[in-house]
Design a protein that fits this description.
Helices cover about 20% and strands about 25% of the residues. By secondary structure, it is α+β, with helices and mostly antiparallel strands. Helix 7 packs across helix 8.
């Protein structure tokens, strides 16, 4: 393969059809030559990055090599005079200075992209490489998956409204266009990422700070193809520890040891499932550090335990774990101890341009700083910490990446086979491959914020953050019992179910909101735990295909304009549709897309392509299952360490053939990367009325399901059968 370098020319040959796509290799082989570069003339390189992505590189700053970026995982980066892969073709029109992208079938998905113009940034005069791509469908073109939180397009599905992300940010230099392609941009500095604007009726404009640009182009007919190509390029998501799919109780304001012990007792005695306590500042310090001066304080301790809460850290955490409660603590990317700050400044590890709390922030991109930081975490991990809550790391765009790397180094020193789990206030392309989750930061406690939150997290799912979360109940404000209940019910259908509140607010402990709310929340929590076999299997699917767990309806119904911007309803996997109550009053309108739908746990079947009015009392969640769905449910348990806890209930919602692969592993280690999993592939044959399954894989731990209870929901009747869960078996479920 040879490198292609070109200078922009005058005029254009005209549009290429499919036949011209097929002669691309010959055309570009003819154009493969070097030209001297003037100050206003870019060098161009096109290359295969992965089997699903092509790279267009533009440089006004000397010879081209792929820009190093943490956004990108390993790539082949094979430069070529002509790029034709299984995914599609990228061709350049030398005289016109334009490029065109075709999909695998020869269809043109980008008819006209330019080769980049060097301009000056408004207000600063700094250079920017600007690349414009003509809209395929004029102003009707739709874009998905750019995250949100710093303004500009892509905050919600199809540029809709404003994001409710507060404090953190997640504006991702990526989108999928319904013209049939996805794009990921890399600039010469990950801390000054590219941005895009699709509001023009004529074109999308990408702006790359600096004099170089890498634009990764992925022909993708739909959002599933885009998710796979994006994950292949930036990294497939790691499978989180299984306990992170349970309920995670966080707050700022845990008072003392007795307070923690009492909270655990309340959860257990009241039969409220929980899998982790997440603790703010108070786990390591009696006071927060917001008022500390840049030089810090001699009596502030950054890497120790607050004896009021943890006089015996290892013993207390071990006791919590015996009760099934894991332990996660907050971290800030800064120091408060004056001696530590003096040492870090002498070593050049502190950002010199910071103000306020940022004046004490560590430059974790420095490898020596990361090594030191990781060593400070090792004794804490040895006491039993299971995960890190990383907050206020928006000093640079890449701080969370290097922070997570330091935490991974510390964990490897304690247990190299353990899975890293962090929850961060921002993310970027590639975060998913580190095992990171993200949450929407310090959001208000009100109904409008609840209603907007699903849209943020759906767009995050499309932007590569498979494990999105929010402060259930909101961070700032006191919830009514109704608001907290509805927020908890919405949280059942988020990838990470975590409640949190600011220290002056009422904790999101269910028993503090009255018996009706507590009972409704208990039912919601038990539903969450019954769904964990499905969630965990979808996590493995995400690891293998890039498909997110939480999916907008447009992923499954791309030709339905009614769902193009819909965020108040969404899918978990392909068949379970959540439509929780997001406004006061127990009522809402639910749109059923064009298919048949069931009310879960019943044989009530509803026709689609219509809107229905729904009344849901406080303890009910509007929920629907698509015909042709297999839904695996576990038992109602107190915490995930109790799995399997009984037989696996496999609910079949007939109407068409259906498949689901249940995936089980040890839930904690990286052994799944070496194939230590058990897969049970279920298949429902509609014509034969038969549920069959086949088990494969070597994993056979005590936590796998050993028996199955099959339930088939027919119109007017429910059929049940029971069987051991052994290999290559089936159950015949006759109608009568």
């Amino acid at each position: 393969m040879t490198e292609t370098k070109m200078r922009r020319g005058l005029g254009r040959i005209g549009d290429f059809g499919p036949m011209r796509c097929r002669v691309l290799a010959l055309l570009l082989m003819i154009l493969a030559f070097d030209l001297p570069a003037a100050a206003d003339t870019p060098q161009i390189q096109i290359a295969q990055a992965t089997t699903g992505a092509l790279r267009l590189s533009v440089s006004y700053d000397g010879p081209i090599t792929p820009l190093p970026s943490i956004f990108i995982a390993n790539t082949t980066n094979q430069a070529s005079a002509g790029i034709k892969t299984a995914a599609g073709e990228l061709r350049v029109d030398r005289p016109g200075g334009r490029w065109t992208l075709c999909d695998a079938g020869g269809k043109t998905v980008i008819a006209n992209g330019d080769l980049g113009t060097l301009i000056s940034q408004d207000g600063t005069g700094k250079p920017i490489v600007q690349i414009k791509i003509d809209h395929a469908g004029g102003s009707t073109e739709r874009f998905y998956g750019s995250g949100g939180g710093r303004g500009g397009p892509g905050n919600l599905l199809h540029l809709q409204g404003d994001s409710v992300v507060a404090g953190g940010f997640a504006m991702i230099p990526y989108y999928w266009s319904d013209a049939g392609y996805a794009a990921l941009a890399v600039s010469s500095d990950d801390n000054a990422p590219a941005s895009w604007d699709g509001r023009s009726a004529k074109s999308v404009t990408w702006n790359f700070p600096g004099k170089r640009a890498d634009l990764y182009l992925m022909p993708a007919a739909n959002l599933y193809d885009a998710a796979r190509a994006y994950a292949q390029l930036s990294g497939y998501p790691a499978v989180p520890p299984r306990w992170t799919f349970g309920y995670l109780q966080s707050r700022w304001g845990w008072k003392d040891r007795a307070y923690i012990d009492d909270a655990a007792k309340q959860f257990i005695d009241r039969k409220l499932p929980v899998d982790a306590f997440i603790i703010d500042f108070e786990w390591f310090t009696p006071r927060h550090d917001y008022e500390l001066k840049p030089q810090g304080s001699a009596d502030y301790h950054d890497f120790s335990w607050n004896p009021r809460l943890f006089p015996d850290p290892a013993g207390q955490i071990a006791q919590l774990k015996k009760q099934g409660i894991h332990f996660v603590v907050i971290r800030k990317p800064r120091l408060g101890n004056s001696a530590a700050l003096l040492m870090a400044r002498r070593n050049g590890w502190i950002f010199t341009q910071g103000k306020g709390v940022d004046a004490r922030c560590l430059d974790l991109a420095n490898s020596d700083c990361r090594d030191w930081y990781a060593r400070q975490l090792v004794p804490l991990l040895r006491c039993g910490i299971d995960g890190w809550w990383d907050d206020e790391g928006e000093i640079t765009d890449t701080t969370y990446y290097w922070w997570n790397q330091a935490q991974a180094m510390a964990l490897a020193a304690v247990d190299p086979n353990a899975r890293l789990w962090t929850i961060n206030r921002s993310f970027f392309p590639g975060s998913q491959r580190l095992g990171a989750a993200a949450w929407t930061a310090d959001i208000p406690s009100d109904w409008p914020t609840l209603a907007k939150t699903p849209g943020d997290l759906l767009n995050w799912s499309l932007a590569g953050m498979d494990y999105g979360a929010c402060d259930i109940g909101g961070y700032a404000g006191n919830d009514s019992p109704e608001l907290l209940t509805r927020w908890m019910q919405m949280g059942v259908f988020l990838p990470v179910m975590r409640a949190h509140s600011e220290y002056e607010m009422k904790p999101r402990f269910p028993w503090l909101y009255g018996p009706a709310a507590e009972d409704a929340i208990r039912k919601a929590l038990f539903l969450r735990y019954r769904l964990i076999p499905m969630y965990y299997s979808l996590a493995h699917q995400a690891h293998e295909t890039g498909a997110p767990l939480m999916r907008p309806l447009v992923m499954e119904f791309p030709s339905d304009p009614k769902v193009a911007d819909m965020t108040s309803q969404w899918l978990i996997g392909r068949g379970l549709m959540a439509a929780p109550i997001l406004n006061p009053g127990n009522r809402r309108q639910v749109y059923l897309p064009d298919d048949d739908w069931y009310v879960p746990g019943s044989s009530q079947r509803l026709t689609g392509n219509r809107v229905i009015a729904v009344y849901a009392p406080l303890d009910r969640i509007p929920l629907y299952v698509r015909a042709g769905t297999i839904l695996p449910l576990g038992p109602a348990i107190q915490h995930t360490d109790q799995l399997p806890g009984g037989p696996l209930e496999v609910q079949v919602y007939p109407g068409k053939d259906a498949d689901f692969t249940l995936v089980e592993d040890d839930g904690l280690t990286k052994a799944y990367l070496d194939g230590q999993v058990r897969r049970t592939k279920f298949h429902w044959d509609e014509a034969a009325r038969r549920l069959s399954w086949r088990i494969s894989g070597p994993y056979n731990g005590a936590d796998v399901f050993r028996s199955i209870r099959a339930v088939v929901f027919d119109a007017g009747q429910i059929r049940r059968a029971q069987s051991p869960l052994s290999s290559d078996m089936s159950l015949l479920i006759p109608r009568n």
